[in-house]
Every structure is written in structure tokens, then in C-alpha cells.
Design goal:
The complex is a heterotrimer of chains A (150), B (721) and C (188).
Chain A lengths: L1 E5 L2 E5 L7 H8 L18 E4 L2 E4 L5 H4 L3 E3 L6 H13 L9 H14 L5 H8 L9 H13 L2
Parallel strand pairs in A: 1-5
Antiparallel strand pairs in A: 1-2, 3-4, 3-5
Chain B lengths: L11 E5 L5 E7 L24 E4 L4 E5 L8 H13 L6 E5 L22 H5 L2 H21 L7 E3 L2 E4 L2 E4 H8 L50 E6 L7 E6 L1 H4 L4 E7 L2 E6 L2 H10 L1 E5 L8 H12 L4 E6 L2 H6 L3 E9 L11 E6 L4 E5 L4 H12 L6 E5 L15 H13 L3 E4 L2 H6 L7 E9 L5 E11 L8 H4 E2 L2 E2 H4 L12 E8 L13 H19 L3 H8 L4 H13 L11 E9 L2 E12 L2 E12 L6 H21 L4 E2 L2 E2 L17 E6 L17 H13 L15
Chain C lengths: L1 H43 L2 H4 L9 E2 L4 E2 L12 E2 L2 E2 H4 L33 H8 L2 H4 L4 H11 L1 H5 L11 H13 L7
Helix pairs in contact in C: 1-8, 6-8
Classes of the chains: A alpha+beta (150), B alpha+beta (721), C mainly alpha (188).
Keywords (chain A): 2Fe-2S, Iron, Iron-sulfur, Metal-binding, Oxidoreductase
Pfam families (chain A): Fer2, Fer2_2
InterPro entries (chain A): 2Fe-2S-bd, 2Fe-2S-bd_dom_sf, 2Fe-2S_ferredoxin-like_sf, 2Fe-2S_ferredoxin-type, 2Fe2S_fd_BS, Beta-grasp_dom_sf, Diverse_Oxidoreductases
Chain lengths: 150, 721, 188
């Protein structure tokens, strides 16, 4: 049994240490907001925060997550999730929505570290998250909107 | 004119309140009408009864969506149609995915429940408004009866019926309304479009909140008690088969429970995805390479080139080609090559099947529930009416989740049946990229000429590609006179005035499985036509805009779209140094889209700075949804033009994941500025028509920068050195 | 007189020969030094090395040294920016599997104040840079450079994944040592 701290709650999980955090969170904890898209840190759909950083949980082994503070889309702090969600609604950002948890988690780190991001800052933060529906321009606009209320 | 879209089959509205305390209203379609010759859909019975709308005594309004939500916003659009007539508070509306029932069949595609071909809005344009209106009429009737007054003395607003100085809410009336007879379709008067308050307005999507907080449930997120997860080892070469395998190495992995051979490969069943995948990595299996084991891209390209020399089958002919070329002052001949493309939706394919003794539950995000049900029935050995398809949000489809052979469902059903437990099959991204069902490879050739006045005088067009609908349930619908419409669409019946015209299709064998991908045949045919038109314009000494306008003058839709795109763009203005504009226009799925793109070269690669788009899709339900689709289509098309290429080696695809089958990312994305032609023409689609014209618009711009015509996609760095 | 002149001439000739010999020896040393650097240069310019010493502010990837697909940027400390910090994907160890993110305890580009660009540099330029403590941040460039290539974990890590550099790590270190010992000659 390995203890992990997800969204402020401690869980004992039964898995080998090489198991990616993504599958522990999705299959054992039942938190399905973080998505599987590529399994090789290419698409960002699985993005979670580990000690505040936007790690790709599909390649983050349990051994790395052990004893660290993990936050998923379901547990993102309201100070960030609320303005981001409001902006996403205002711009009607999501289409299929599958990548959006990851987009929100990446945007949250950007806005936490840079409350007034430029377009270039957004490129530098968000290019690790693929959206096949092509909602990028709305994500960009929504980040600017969210920045105004953070 | 709009209401010409009628339900094609005899159908009637029916109320029901069997297990639901409230009004349930839907269409009931007689069984005999759900069959169509040649569709292989015989002997199907369905669950019943089913509804489009449920009004609860708790004031809830639930709309049952019969089309799948893939991101195109159809759930919101369907609700807008119903809400327009129902007069209900928008915030009260909830959506449920429809189960399978003939009542939910498409009104345009035949007796199937399906989402695709950019035609869901047209399918429901009349029907959903009728449902909303019928429910409103019944709720008013219920109030009128309660108060003993005439329905005509009642008024309704935001879910409250008023009359005789009293008021009752829909929730309060739901029970009583459910006991009333539904009105005849003929007696339902729909609103005049000019009175619309909800339809045609940029109403916010209903699913944004749950798609930003992790709550939205996609097929991948489904689970049931005792479920195991399977990963399938499939033959690397298309057409390959299992020769032999040793299950022990896989079974030695922690958590691996079963190793089962199925028709499409070997399933490794474990307690979760990771262990199943580790089991697959450990599995020792020997494959036979099958008939396509020698297939590789250079060889295949040679075969296509050879096929181009064949006579071909004539898809369309106008005038006399020979006479046309006889009057030519300049003749151009170009060949165009297009690769296989993978849809690569962000949600990899998956399916959860729970096969029980005499029933089977399917959990999936699908564009094609009917075929999934038939597949499940076949493999589970259970009658169709005992199959329950639980549809989910679809994490991107683009056609990939609209499969004709049911292969996604078939794997899960086979494994579940063998194991006796619910099984979720998960595809890895590598499985997706290498697993087939691609946009077909194509080779096209155009020989075209202008006369001495600079007018096109002859156009000979060849298309070499396969027909993936051959041998499927949809062959009869899509192949006519031995011509697959999907191969020639976008060239056949072109709105361009091209006299002395001949279109030939050269069919290649179905060596690897292909499928419709967003834009389908238009995705390559528009490129051929639109870059060729640019070439002719240049030869005629005319600018691309006026040349197109001249050739499209008989098609008002094209003209209005073209004019709007040009007027909103920087056409004719001074651009930053090194920047040029490119133009393309294409009609598909009943709509017309034009793009003006601003392009430069940066680090020997095209940089698209800005895209101006115009679309005429006729009447629209939600203008913001239209814009979103065109924005997304542009990105989808640029991705293909920049990066989209799958290559074969020894019968297998060489690419595997997003590192070598790349997607456009945030920093490469231009701003797409979309404008809609206000139009009362026939309703067209919006999900796909934006894809075909984007790549040729960029190619036409690039020609101005390099002086070279692009005749092969994706773009090649060598073209810009 | 005749004899003296002869002797003198002889002596002069002998001295000249010595000088010539010395000169040839130095020339040879210099040539060997240059050759040693050119050998090591192949490693410096190999994707495993140059990918993290790019000309721009984005790391390079793969054997074709393309710009990192995810638009990762150097940042002030060389450790990336925002949601794209190097260590978000590049962890303590290489993730097993083809094309998976390699990793190490430290995984970064040179920081913004000292970018140590290799990409696009000729052998001569690179050799000159190594002698410039402003470029490297070294104190005693010869000792520090050898120590860096011999012991720096991130340098050693270049031989642990993907297409390996064309020399073994030992050969690489030996080449650099040889370059310095033979006079750190600047390649032409």
C-alpha cells in the first residue's frame, strides 16, 4: 500500500510504484476529470498539480507522487477554478471538452505565477496542451478574461 | 421554405408517464417504417417507449438528445429548438443522452441513429420545434381544463401558464398534461422564424461547466462494479493474423487476469489499464503479415500512379472535352498527392461491454449507436432489443467514432462474453494512430485550359482513391452507378462554371481500412480544385477574387460568401513586409465557406497570421456555435496541411503518437475571424465545411511567396527553402 | 677565415634545423590539439548535447534537433516556464520506452544570463567560447572544463538514452584533455 495525498485527502492505494498517477487517480480513486490522451506527455490532457506544478500524470510514476501534494481538476482551489471556469463559460471555450481539464490545470499555473499574462506568456504556458477541436483562440481569450478577475 | 424539411416517415407524437411522474413526450414510429431495403437492419426491435422531452413535477425540463455531442454543440442546439417553442426558462433545461429507439432515428439519413455528415441540425430543425410546441400545447390544455377556460385564453412565459388571473407552473401541470392525448403533427403551428427568441441567438453552451470541472462523463470515464480493463494486441500489419502466442509472459505481470484471443487480436485483461498494458508489452506473439505485409508507401504511390493511367469510371461529363482543349490558349496539368490521415480524437477509442446471459449493456461515446447495437447483438448472441447502448459525451469524433463495422464494440463484447465480467477495452494512442480507419490516400490529376479570353474552356479531373463504404450497409446509399460519392464530392457538381468538363474516378482496392474524416472527400478535392483555379486565374491575368466571382456568378451562395470574406479581410490593403494573402472557397454539406489567410514564411515554414472566414449555412440555430466550428475546422485543416501524414512500411503505419503525428498547438494557431452570411437559403451543415478550403487558401498564399505551386500535402520543408 | 665562415654557416644551419624541428613539433602538437578538439566537437554538436545548448530560447528535440514541440522556453533559470517547466515531464530518471521523456535530477537549459550556445557555432568559435569564462562561468577554464565534461551528471546522462554521441564518454573526455594538454589550439 502506498499513501498519496490527492485534493487534500490521503488515500492508500494498492499498485506497483511504476504505475502512472493518472491511472491511480482515475481507476482507484474514481476521479475521472483527468484524461488519458497520449501516455507520453505530448498532449497534456492528464495534467495535474504536484506540489503546485503542472505535471503530466500519464508519465508520473506513483513513486514520484508518493508523499507529495497532488491536486486534480476536481480539487483545484476556488481562487483559480472559479475565475477560470467563469471565463471559459463566457467565451464558450470547450467543444468536445476532453482536453479542457488539462487546459484549465495548465492555465491555473500560468495565472498563479503571472496574473497578467501576455499572448506570448500564454503560448509559453499552454503549448503543451493539445486541443484537437481547435479551441485555442478561445482559451487564449478566456485566460485574458480570467486574469482580470484574479 | 424552412419547414419543407419534413419527417420522412409516418410518425406521431405520443405521451407516456410509465415510470416518470410528469409529462413525457416523444415520437413513436411504427416498426414497419423503421426498415429500409438494403440496410441490413431487419429483424430489429427496440426499447420503447422513448421521449424527447420530460417535464417533471419538480419543474425539471429534461431534453433527450438523439444526436451525439462531439463538441459541435448539438446538445445546446437541440435544446434551443425545443425551448423556442416550449417557452421555458433556459436555466432549467438538462440534457440526457438518448438510448436506442427508432423514434430517435435520423430524419435525413435513413433508419439509423447517427451523428455525422454535418446534418444533425437539419435533421432536427422541424422535429424538435414540433416536440416543444406539442408539449407547450398540452401544458396549456392542462391548465385550461383545470381552470375550465379555453386554451386560447391562456398565455405562457418561462414555464408558467397564465389565464383567468391565475397561474400554474409546468411542474404543477406536468402530471395532468401526461394524461392528455398528444396533438396531431398537422395541428401544430410553429413560430415564424422572425419571432424567434432562442433560435438564432448566441445562447451559451449547456455543457461548459461540466467540461471545465471534470464532471462531464465520456465513454472513457464509464465504469461498473467488477469491471476489468483490457488492452488488445492487434496485428501490426493490416490484414495480419495471430500465428501463435505465449500467454504466460503476460500472465506473469501483476494484475493480469486473462489472455484471450479474439478475432482482431489478443486481449490482455487486467485489474486496470496500466497492468493490462504491461501485460501486452510482455506478451510474446507471432503474427502472420497477411496479404498486405509488403505494402509500403512508395510502392503504393507507384500503384496509384499506375491506376491513374487506367480508363477510370466517369462520374460526370459536360460539353466536349476534346473540343474544349481544341480552343485552349494555355493548358495546365498538375498532379496532387494526399496521404492517409488519422482522426486522432483526443479521447482514444474505448468501449465498456457487460455481456450477461440474455442482455448486454454497452457504455461508449459513439456517433453511430445503431451500428454499435447491431454489432453487440451479433457478438453477444443476444437479441437487438436486449442491447442497451449508454451513450456518453464523445471526446472528439471527426468521423472516427462513426464506424460501419462495429470494430470498437466488437472487441469489448467478445472479451466480456469470454470472461463473464464487464470489460472496458481501452485503445492507447499508438493503437489509434496505427489502427486504421483513416482518411483515404488519394492521387488526383487535373488537366485544365483557358481560352484566349482567359475563361476556363476545358477541365479533365481524375481522382484515384479507395471506397471504404464498399461492402458496408451504406454502400447502396453512397455508391451510385458505381461511383462512390465520397470519392468525388466537391468536384462533382462544382458551382464553378467549367464548360467541357469530365470527372473520372479510379478505384483502388481497400488495402487498409479507411473511414470518413471531417471533410471526407472534400478534404482533398477542394485542395485540387482551389489551387488549380488560382493557377488559371494567374494565367488569365486576373486576380483570384474576380476570377472566382466570374466563375461562380450563377451560385448566389458562393458569391455572397466570397464577398463577405473579402470585405472583412485585408484584401487590397497594404500588408506588412513578407506577408501575403491567399484565398479559397468551397461548398460542402449544403454550406459554403471562404477563407482569406494572411501568411508569411518564418524559419522556412509557413506562418498563418490571421484567417478571415465567411460561411453561408442558411438559417442557423446558434451563431456562436457556427463560429466555433469554423474556428476549429480551420485549425483541423491547418494541422493536416502542416503535419498530417501517415506512411506505411511492411504493411504497418510508421507513425505512432503525437510526437510524430503532430497536432497544431497554441503557439502555431492564428486568430480565426468568422463572419456569417445572413441567409434564408436551405440549412447547411457547419461541422465540416470549414475544413476543405483552409489548406488551399494557405497554399495559394504560399505560391505568392515561393513561386512554386504546392501539389502534395502535407507541406514539405523543402518547398520553402 | 674560410673555415670560420664554414663553421658559422654550419652552426647557423644546425640551429635553424633545431628551430625547424621544434617548430615542426609544435606544429604537430597544435595540429593534434586541433584534431582532438574536432573529435570532441562532434559530441558537442550531437543532438544529445546541442539540444540543450540551442541558439534560441527553446530547447531542441530528437536526432534532427527540431525545436521542442511543446514550445518550451528557457525561462530565467533555464528550467522552463509556467505549466511547461522542464521537470513537469523530465523527472529524476528516464521514463522507459521509445520517445518517452528522458530525465535526471537536474534537467534544464543553461540559464538566461549564461546561455552557453553551441548551436550554429564553428569548431573555432566554440573553442574560443570555452576559453571565455563569461561564456562558461568557469574560474579556471581548463580545469573546470575538464571537470565539467568528466563529472557533470547531465553531461554523463547524454550517454544514457536515445541515439548516443559518436564517441564514448571516455574518448570524449580524453579528446578534450588532449586538446588542452597540447596547447588548446584553435581549430581553423
Amino acid at each position: 500500500m502506498i499513501e498519496i495525498d490527492v485534493n487534500g485527502k490521503k488515500h492508500n492505494v494498492d499498485a506497483t510504484e511504476d504505475t502512472p498517477l493518472l491511472w491511480i487517480v482515475r481507476e482507484q480513486l474514481g476521479l475521472t476529470g483527468s484524461k488519458f490522451g497520449c501516455g507520453m506527455a505530448q498532449c497534456g490532457a492528464c495534467t495535474m498539480h504536484l506540489e503546485g506544478e503542472a505535471v503530466r500524470s500519464c508519465i508520473t510514476p506513483l513513486s514520484r507522487a508518493k508523499g507529495k501534494k497532488i491536486v486534480t481538476i476536481e480539487g483545484l482551489d476556488k481562487s483559480l477554478s472559479e475565475p477560470i471556469q467563469k471565463a471559459w463559460i463566457e467565451k464558450d471555450v470547450p467543444q468536445c471538452g476532453y482536453c479542457q481539464s488539462g487546459q484549465v490545470m495548465s492555465a491555473a499555473v500560468l495565472l498563479r505565477e503571472n496574473p497578467k499574462p501576455t499572448d506570448e506568456d500564454i503560448d509559453n504556458a499552454m503549448a503543451g496542451n493539445i486541443c484537437r477541436c481547435g479551441t485555442y483562440q478561445r482559451i487564449r481569450e478566456a485566460i485574458h478574461i480570467a486574469a482580470k478577475s484574479i | 421554405m424552412l419547414d419543407e424539411v419534413k419527417l420522412k416517415r409516418r410518425s406521431f407524437l405520443k405521451t407516456g408517464a410509465i415510470t416518470f411522474g410528469g409529462l413525457v413526450l416523444g415520437f413513436q414510429i411504427p416498426m414497419a417504417c423503421s426498415k429500409k431495403q438494403g440496410m441490413n437492419l431487419k429483424d430489429i426491435a427496440y426499447h420503447a417507449p422513448n421521449a424527447f422531452i420530460k417535464i417533471g413535477t419538480d419543474e425539471s425540463v429534461t431534453i433527450i438528445a438523439n444526436h451525439s455531442e462531439l463538441g459541435q454543440g448539438i446538445y445546446t442546439s437541440l435544446c434551443q429548438l425545443i425551448a423556442e417553442e416550449l417557452e421555458v426558462d433556459w436555466d432549467k433545461i438538462k440534457v440526457e443522452h438518448a438510448p436506442i429507439d427508432p423514434a430517435y432515428n435520423h430524419t435525413q439519413m435513413g433508419p439509423i441513429q447517427a451523428t455525422g455528415s454535418s446534418i444533425s441540425a437539419l435533421s432536427e430543425w422541424t422535429r424538435m420545434r414540433q416536440v416543444g410546441a406539442a408539449a407547450r400545447m398540452m401544458l396549456i390544455d392542462a391548465a385550461a381544463q383545470t381552470w375550465g377556460i379555453s386554451p386560447s385564453d391562456c398565455s405562457v412565459e418561462k414555464g408558467v401558464v397564465k389565464g383567468n388571473g391565475k397561474s400554474l407552473t409546468y411542474g404543477q401541470l406536468a402530471e395532468k398534461a401526461s394524461e392528455l392525448e398528444a396533438p396531431d403533427l398537422e395541428s401544430i403551428a410553429l413560430k415564424d422564424p422572425k419571432d424567434f427568441k432562442v433560435v438564432g441567438k448566441p445562447i451559451k453552451r449547456l455543457d461548459t461547466k461540466i467540461k471545465t470541472n471534470g464532471e462531464a462523463m465520456f465513454g472513457m470515464d464509464a465504469s461498473v462494479p467488477n469491471m476489468l480493463v483490457a488492452v488488445i494486441a492487434r496485428p501490426p500489419a493490416f490484414g495480419g493474423k495471430v500465428k501463435s502466442f505465449d500467454a504466460n509472459t503476460a500472465l506473469a505481470i501483476d494484475g493480469v487476469k486473462h489472455v484471450i484471443e479474439i478475432d482482431r487480436g489478443i486481449a490482455i485483461v487486467a485489474d486496470g489499464f496500466w497492468n493490462a498494458k504491461k501485460g501486452r508489452d510482455a506478451l510474446k506473439v507471432e503474427w502472420s503479415s497477411g496479404t498486405n505485409g509488403n505494402l509500403d508507401t512508395p510502392k503504393q504511390s507507384l500503384a496509384f500512379a499506375k491506376e491513374l493511367q487506367s480508363v477510370g469510371r466517369q462520374a460526370e461529363e459536360r460539353g466536349n472535352l476534346k473540343e474544349g482543349f481544341g480552343k485552349a490558349s494555355k493548358v495546365f496539368e498538375s498532379e496532387f498527392e494526399f496521404p492517409y490521415l488519422a482522426h486522432a480524437p483526443m479521447e482514444p477509442m474505448n468501449c465498456l461491454a457487460d455481456v450477461k446471459e440474455d442482455s448486454c449493456d454497452i457504455y461508449i461515446g459513439t456517433q453511430m449507436p445503431t451500428f454499435d447495437m447491431l454489432t453487440a447483438s451479433h457478438y453477444a448472441g443476444v437479441a437487438p432489443e436486449k442491447i442497451k447502448v449508454n451513450n456518453h459525451y464523445v471526446g472528439g469524433g471527426f468521423g472516427r467514432k462513426s464506424v460501419l463495422d462495429g470494430h470498437i464494440v466488437s472487441e469489448a463484447v467478445q472479451v466480456s462474453k469470454a470472461v463473464g465480467l464487464p470489460i472496458k477495452v481501452i485503445w492507447t494512442r499508438e493503437d489509434d494512430i496505427r489502427g486504421g480507419y483513416y482518411r483515404p490516400k488519394a492521387l488526383c490529376k487535373v488537366k485544365a485550359a483557358i481560352d484566349e479570353n482567359g475563361n476556363p474552356i476545358a477541365w479533365e479531373h481524375h481522382i484515384v482513391c479507395q471506397s471504404f463504404v464498399r461492402g458496408t450497409a451504406l454502400e447502396q446509399m453512397l455508391v451510385h452507378d458505381d461511383i462512390d460519392h465520397l470519392a468525388v464530392e466537391g468536384v462533382v457538381h462544382t458551382p464553378y462554371n467549367l464548360p467541357n468538363f469530365k470527372l473520372l474516378w479510379h478505384e483502388t482496392p481497400n488495402e487498409i481500412p479507411c473511414l470518413w474524416m471531417r471533410g471526407v472527400g472534400h478534404s482533398f478535392n477542394a485542395f485540387t480544385v482551389e489551387t488549380m483555379i488560382d493557377q488559371l486565374a494567374e494565367a488569365a491575368g486576373e486576380d483570384e477574387y474576380s476570377f472566382r466571382k466570374k466563375l461562380l456568378k450563377d451560385d448566389p451562395r458562393s458569391i455572397e460568401t466570397l464577398e463577405l470574406a473579402i470585405s472583412k479581410s485585408k484584401w487590397g490593403q497594404t500588408l506588412p513586409s513578407g506577408h501575403v494573402l491567399g484565398l479559397a472557397i468551397h461548398s460542402s454539406y449544403g454550406s459554403c465557406v471562404a477563407f482569406v489567410v494572411e501568411v508569411s514564411l518564418e524559419n522556412q515554414w509557413p506562418k498563418v497570421h490571421h484567417v478571415t472566414a465567411a460561411i453561408d449555412c442558411g438559417p442557423y440555430i446558434n451563431p456562436d456555435a457556427v463560429k466555433a466550428q469554423i474556428e476549429g475546422s480551420a485549425i483541423f485543416g491547418i494541422t493536416s496541411a502542416y503535419y498530417g501524414e501517415l506512411t506505411l512500411k511492411e504493411g504497418a503505419i510508421e507513425q505512432s503518437n503525437f510526437h510524430n503525428y503532430k497536432m497544431l498547438r497554441m503557439h502555431e494557431t492564428p486568430f480565426v475571424d468568422v463572419h456569417i452570411v445572413e441567409s434564408d437559403k436551405v440549412m447547411g451543415g457547419v461541422g465540416e465545411p470549414g475544413v476543405p478550403p483552409i489548406a488551399p487558401a494557405i497554399a495559394n498564399a504560399l505560391y505568392k511567396l515561393t513561386g512554386r505551386r504546392i501539389s502534395k500535402l502535407p507541406f514539405d520543408k523543402k518547398d520553402f527553402v | 677565415m674560410v673555415l670560420m665562415v664554414f663553421v658559422t654557416v654550419f652552426a647557423v644551419n644546425k640551429n635553424h634545423e633545431e628551430v625547424e624541428k621544434n617548430y615542426a613539433f609544435e606544429k604537430q602538437l597544435e595540429e593534434e590539439s586541433k584534431q582532438a578538439f574536432l573529435k570532441a566537437y562532434k559530441v558537442f554538436m550531437h543532438p544529445r548535447c546541442v539540444n540543450c545548448h540551442p541558439a534560441g530560447d527553446a530547447p531542441l528535440q530528437g536526432d534532427d534537433s527540431h525545436i521542442h514541440s511543446q514550445n518550451v522556453k528557457r525561462g530565467i533559470d533555464g528550467k522552463g516556464l509556467y505549466a511547461l517547466k522542464c521537470s513537469n515531464c523530465h523527472q529524476e530518471k528516464n521514463i522507459p520506452g521509445d520517445n518517452m521523456p528522458p530525465g535526471h535530477d537536474i534537467w534544464q537549459l543553461p540559464p538566461a544570463h549564461m546561455k552557453m550556445v553551441f548551436e550554429g557555432k564553428s569548431p573555432r568559435q566554440l573553442a574560443e567560447h570555452f576559453m571565455d569564462n563569461e561564456f562558461t562561468g568557469f574560474v579556471n577554464w581548463q580545469e573546470d572544463l575538464i571537470h565539467h565534461v568528466e563529472h557533470e551528471p547531465l553531461v554523463l546522462h547524454s550517454w544514457s538514452y536515445g541515439t548516443r554521441p559518436p564517441l564514448s564518454h571516455e574518448e570524449f573526455v580524453e579528446s578534450l584533455k588532449e586538446w588542452i594538454e597540447k596547447g588548446a589550439a584553435l581549430p581553423d
